[in-house]
Amino acid sequence: MDTQLRKRTCVPLYLSALLTGPYSLQRSLETYILENFESLAGSKPYAKEFVRALTKAHLVNFLSKKLHVTSEGVLFTAVLRRNRAE
Predict the structure, then answer these.
(1) How far apart are CA 7 and CA 77, in angstroms?
(2) Band of residue 80 on the pLDDT scale cut at 50, 70, 90
(3) What is the pTM of this model?
(4) SS3 of 9, please?
(5) How many angstroms separate the CA atoms of 65 and 44, rounded?
(6) Helices within 1-86 (DSSP H only)
(7) DSSP assignment of 35-50, as one string?
(8) Could you report the per-residue pLDDT of 7-65, keeping only the tens digit for each?
């Protein structure tokens, strides 16, 4: 599945899967987002869209799990973007 996911579609698919999808799809999408969090939250074309699509609860959920990031600055920027989106 990972090879078929795209930055632009992974969060909308994840949010949809939370409502209607099977648990295995939810977990696959969550794993993809965790593994690609830095590129999703840090890429200019997708960063604002990525963070705005997530609620605070979603963002906290991802922050409480094992993220693959190179620095805490990525997380800090994502949280700031989320707060500005409100």
Answers:
(1) 18
(2) confident
(3) 0.74
(4) helix
(5) 24
(6) 7-19, 23-35, 37-42, 47-53, 56-63, 72-85
(7) HTHHHHHH-TTTHHHH
(8) 778 888 999 999 998 999 999 999 998 888 888 877 777 777 787 788 888 878 887 88
